[in-house]
Amino acid sequence: MYNFCNRLAVRSHLILAPHHSHPAPLPMESALFSSSPLSAFVPRSPPSLASRPLRLLSLPFSLLIHHSPPPRGGPPLLPRRLLRRFSPAAYADADAAAASAAESRSSGDRVVARPSSELRMGRPGGSGTGVAGDEKLRSLRELFARPDVAIDAYIIPSQDAHQSEFIAECFMRRAYLTGFTGSAGTAVVTKEKAALWTDGRYFLQAEKQLSPDWILMRSGNQGVPTTSEWLNDVLPAGCRIGIDPFLFSHDAAEELKEAISKKNHELILIKDFNLVDEIWKSRPKPPGKPTRVHDIKYAGVDVLSKLSSLRSVLVENGCTAIVISMLDEVAWLLNMRGSDVPNSPVFYSYLIVEISHATLFVDNNKVTPGVLDHLKSAGVELKPYEEILSEVESLAAKGAKLWLDTSCVNAAIVSIFRSACERHFTRLATKSRKQLNNGASSDLISIKSEDIRNGIPNGLYKVSPVAIAKAVKNKAEIEGMKNSHLRDAAALSEFWCWMEQEVKNNLTLTEVAVADKLFEFRKQQEGFIDTSFDTISGYGANGAVIHYKPTSDSCSFVGTDNLFLLDSGGQYVDGTTDITRTVHFGEPSAWQKECFTRVLQGHIALDQAIFPERMPGFVLDVLARSSLWKVGLDYRHGTGHGVGAALNVHEGPQSISFRFGNLTALQNGMIVSNEPGYYEDHSFGIRIENLLLVKEVDLPNSYGGIGFLGFEKLTFVPIQSKLIDTSLLSPMEIKWVNDYHSQVWEKVSPLVNVAVRDWLWRNTSHAACWTLKSRGKMRTQLMSTCLILSISMFARPIKQQRSVRERGGGGSRQGGRAVDSGLGVI
Amino acid sequence: MYNFCNRLAVRSHLILAPHHSHPAPLPMESALFSSSPLSAFVPRSPPSLASRPLRLLSLPFSLLIHHSPPPRGGPPLLPRRLLRRFSPAAYADADAAAASAAESRSSGDRVVARPSSELRMGRPGGSGTGVAGDEKLRSLRELFARPDVAIDAYIIPSQDAHQSEFIAECFMRRAYLTGFTGSAGTAVVTKEKAALWTDGRYFLQAEKQLSPDWILMRSGNQGVPTTSEWLNDVLPAGCRIGIDPFLFSHDAAEELKEAISKKNHELILIKDFNLVDEIWKSRPKPPGKPTRVHDIKYAGVDVLSKLSSLRSVLVENGCTAIVISMLDEVAWLLNMRGSDVPNSPVFYSYLIVEISHATLFVDNNKVTPGVLDHLKSAGVELKPYEEILSEVESLAAKGAKLWLDTSCVNAAIVSIFRSACERHFTRLATKSRKQLNNGASSDLISIKSEDIRNGIPNGLYKVSPVAIAKAVKNKAEIEGMKNSHLRDAAALSEFWCWMEQEVKNNLTLTEVAVADKLFEFRKQQEGFIDTSFDTISGYGANGAVIHYKPTSDSCSFVGTDNLFLLDSGGQYVDGTTDITRTVHFGEPSAWQKECFTRVLQGHIALDQAIFPERMPGFVLDVLARSSLWKVGLDYRHGTGHGVGAALNVHEGPQSISFRFGNLTALQNGMIVSNEPGYYEDHSFGIRIENLLLVKEVDLPNSYGGIGFLGFEKLTFVPIQSKLIDTSLLSPMEIKWVNDYHSQVWEKVSPLVNVAVRDWLWRNTSHAACWTLKSRGKMRTQLMSTCLILSISMFARPIKQQRSVRERGGGGSRQGGRAVDSGLGVI
């Protein structure tokens, strides 16, 4: 309620540029906004102060890290879209890429994808393009003077119209204009100057790619202003600053408006055309691949039921309609999937759900007859994507009480609705006054006013109810997630088995080649569609770059002298995966082992957490860090993000992070990642990531009648035991590792061939303790370890042990190599 | 900054009743406000939404417990005064008591105190007083009609004018009027009705004590309205509701004003007299005992230096003066102590610090020549306590920029300053207009306006900078805290040694007698002044009442069949202590041992925490609960509160709690309690409390250049090993217990006599492991335990072992009794 009231209090005074008949290429306009990728999980442009540091690129670096508490006050709204510790990936090197990946997919039953290396080509607006940087700027500035534009500056952010993490190539306007292809950046062009803001990850790249006409603003560096501070500085007072209102959430636009008002600048919403599109000669076409129905066996709940639940919420909140603009929310609600953007099975669209009917705004050519039937049976009408604004206007005319999540719905939609509301209010008030003048009794007028009030359209500006409904998975979604994770685990086992051999024989095995090979293994799994994000394949120092993305022309070879970090995920018809493993193919140093072990201890502590219901995720974050803190270590990203079921790999509203602003309680059925890490600059990176299902736990007590929650693992891939310093682990932690590996063996061994099964056995058996003991290492400290181990060894299913013996005893066959080779065991 | 802006935005429209020449008994008026004692650590009436549930008594009970996240939004101000999980104690049975304790203290070098039992007499307005309840109400209502009052209702809260936790008897107006002597409650009297709000702890007591003229409002029960909701319900629209503005913080008054404005009621600030005082025939005199100088060897920093630091902060914030109204802040800043209220060595006063001088508003008769010299040498003037309002007015006249912490400074002071500011603004504006009309050039006017702006008084409404300065202890304060804790530990060892014998021989040993005996032992320690709060001495089911306070007429006998919880503390010349131990003098059940062990595990986890600087305390709260959560248990209070150095036992702004609103970072030099617990209704209560000093730790790494903090224990009293189920403990936890007991032995044994030393040895030695082993219990699980133990045994100083052998071997002399007797050992 507080948020609601608070938001209502924010009055919109955005100025809309006059409508024109100018032929806009598409009203659907987008770009990447300055979502700071220094932060692990960034809420989707929420109006909360707590999230501001994440959105204003040039805030002091120290604000973005080190657990600085969020600024006090401000409505701590539920963050919705959670961006990634690593690159949002919708942009840089592999992103145009991703768009062509979408192209390569067939729309039929069997989806075909292409490997990463093939996708890493063709950047929009790269330095190799025909038009010189200054030429583009000149063309853009010419537009400033046009009477239907009339602005002094234009801001080109990095968003699309839906706040998507991954966006289509045709919306990569900032990259086209600036030539800078990093995933995060905001360009600002005045009549005299042009500046690009990006963060520490991209300073070098931006220096290379920007022409001398551009000023590089190194966000996070001391003294670097924000975009609005810069505009207030370089422009004389009272200028007109233009934006494409489709590319800003309403809240972001309001924030910008307020910031520039300090210098009496006006924010001009130019909604009929995007200025970059006007000068973009060979702009790629918007994606047009067909959508598909997401099978009810994976979706679990049919569209009518979902719509019915949503309508109940609308009625409860006194609303008659809602505009849904987040692509994953539309896809989830309508049990549909698409392939408009890389890594996420979504399609460009808006959805308006009213009490009696629903309308999907989507390009007709994306709707196959099957999809059309599916939609019809749920009572969903179709309208062209471009008609969203006129429909919102006509809703206002009908007196709609419209639910708008202003943290994600773009400023174009919100401002047009507000203007329409004001117009209708004025009209009705005039009518009412006339009646009064015509001699109607004041009593009558009073009644009329009541009617008028009821007939006046208005907005409820509140976080979308679909976000939480989507986050709490149903039985079928959980089933699909579990199944897809097992197939993914099989692919990863095959991959690691291959990798262990390959790295010793192939001295020129690159990080990209590794990612490509992993893609090959995943592709062989049933129901595989695509990667769920660009694979982070980082050897040695590259592993320490949290947002590392290897490119085929500049990546490292993977060797046996350092740690190798691999963070990857798959999109399957029934689920979405996200897993990180860190391994060493040679001899890890004691220091690397200590760091790895402390990260593992954090991973275990979070995995094993039991906590009362209604607990926000941030409360648990400390559990994942304590073991690192003990020796003065830490990591500069969150510990867990939500994951969609066969949808976006990053979703809200829940998270597990040191950012205290997100008060969303963890709930039974939610899925979160568990990914503590440690990164040593210029040296190595460590991260261990599993996905977890939040689950009610049955405990002997229930203090105060409160339910308790815990986690169930979804990910089953061995953790490299060689990297574990067992002397640091408690018996409970050793038991956790052994139990986990037993589960991995049980679940994944039936899914792989004999050779891989052998690898799996070696990496999930518990024999190393004895090896270590015989070496006389740490004999006394390990006594307790061995005790527990021996118990858990005996507890291991007899059948399993026998099968190994029959195979020649994976562990013993490899002999001492278990420890000397790439993958040791505890 | 956000708070500042936010608060400035709150406009005061409080209506001041006209000034009268009515002979007010004292302008210093106070009462206890409805600080909900259900909550462990309640911020001092902050304006933050997060704290509202704690202040509005009739909110649903569920809001007060179960980790419900704080309401989103609202400026999360630093909580200042931290109330107690147990009774604020300024009121109920023992509180008049406490006032007479103050009386019994000599003001000389040696301070004499009296035991609790003697103090538990003479309640103001108890049912035994001469005037019948209805008579008082009739007299009060007669005043409503007086022209200088003219109100329809009057609210009598539980505060004094300084938001003190412990208040003097003469300010216990709510108790006098209602006859209800519980520590928390708010009375509201209209012309027809009279209602009293209190919480679950006091329902039975209130039922007994209230006359039939009073409606009992059971706060926390479903459907029970808040005071303002009730007023809005029972009064016709547009009534005048009176309060004594000295008894409400400005923020609390503003909140009340807003709530009642919904029914168009006006809030009337009657500042010249308190209506209850008008009818209180034999009202006790305000406390008048002399103050004393707090020795520089304990204070560490002289007054001039403290004032100088404060003045720098004022200048940095563009202020020319500050009003300090919290009694502990005045005492700390001036290195003075007093004995106006029980348990806290403070004295009723206000302090105004300006850039060039400072004024203490205090009754002259409290200032001895020594104190006068002390104040003079620091440039502090004296003025009568009653002149605070006129001084604030004259500050406004001088154009002061006044710092006011509206979360604690009362509404009388803030509103008089604001009114004065407005008057001066109007006057200057008129003057400026006149100059313009007289033909001065506009340039000149512009300069004049600048001057005028500079000359206009205004307020900075921000948390007092003294709070954090006081919370971060200097070297001498830390030294004093450490020393007083050792003497306190000696007293407690003597006490427990006595108790262990007494409980077996004395079948009529009451909870109060136990508290009295403890008081006797403490009194024998050098520098002891008083208890730091009323001792919580709870046997069996009484231990489960978190805020339990035994009374001599109704308390239980302490026996050997159940757990006994003892939470107590002392005020010493050099420090303040607060410690809880739970013991069993017979055979604890396995369940009690499990619960105790899990509480201990939480205690250890927090004690051992290492965390980056700038971390709010609430981040660590989960560490103290995890072990309980694992089996579905929890406790409904915070885990840690700040403690003053020879000052209030509860102080802010830091805390360690599941309330996420307090973002105050823990800092090197702060002191916090570590007191997880578990309470089983009608059965038993467990709490283990030590005080901890926040300390920088020297770690092998410093990730990102961040400093790390940890805790150093201040409390050294054995934890009853008999209650520990060692099978649940990790080797690290067992080592913690053993190390702690080694420290207790080393530090405390030199301070006690031979008999007590023997008790101390038995309760700090590590022999039980072997005993358990020989019993063949849990042999395998304990192997690791024994290993660690044996190592730590060997590590024990030889000298210490020898001394025991010389004494005949404390452990062995007692033989098997170590486990069978009251206090076992690990």
Automatic annotation (TrEMBL), chains A, B:
The keyword Manganese applies. It comes from the Eukaryota. One of its GO terms (cellular component) is cytoplasm. Its cofactor is Mn(2+). Residues 479-696 form the Peptidase M24 domain. Residues 707-766 form the Peptidase M24 C-terminal domain. InterPro entries: Creatin/AminoP/Spt16_N, Creatinase/aminopeptidase-like, Creatinase_N, Pept_M24, Pept_M24B, Peptidase_M24_C, X-Pro_aminopeptidase_P. Residues 101-132, 801-826 are annotated as: Disordered. Keywords: Aminopeptidase, Hydrolase, Manganese, Metal-binding, Protease. Residues 139-263 form the Creatinase N-terminal domain. GO terms for molecular function: metal ion binding; metalloaminopeptidase activity. Belongs to the peptidase M24B family. This is Probable Xaa-Pro aminopeptidase P isoform X7.
